[in-house]
Amino acid sequence: MSDNSKVLIGLLAGLAAGAALGLLLAPEKGSDTRDKLSQSLKDLGDSIRDKAADEINHLASLKDKVVGSVKSKLRQSEEEFVDDVEHA
């Protein structure tokens, strides 16, 4: 995970914790506070899920690039080997 991802996750967690504390200390009815806290946690979960999906897509793309590169190198090595055998 990149440093930017760690910072973003830390920021999101801090925002969620701050929002939760603010709601818990706010002078509102308990049911209203619980509803707001529930919504904040749902939003945080959605945000984390979206970030995880982005990271998974990034890793899948990286995997495809690596596999393509390895296949290309193998083809190149195979062609060189065939050429060497033919000229031996």
List keywords for this structure.
88 residues, mainly alpha, 2 helices, YtxH domain-containing protein, YtxH
Mean pLDDT: 84
Q: What percentage of residues falls in helices of 4 or more residues?
A: over 70%
Number of strands: 0
Strand content: under 5%
Task: Sum up the overall morphology in one term.
Answer: rod-shaped
Question: What is the rounded distance between the termini?
Answer: 49 Å
| Total helical elements | 2
- Counting helices, strands and paired strands, the structural category is mainly alpha
Word description of this protein:
The protein has 88 residues and is mainly α. It has two helices and no strands. Helix 1 (3-25) packs antiparallel against helix 2. The longest helix is centred in the middle third of the chain and has 57 residues, at 30-86. The two termini are 49 Å apart. 0% of the residues are buried.
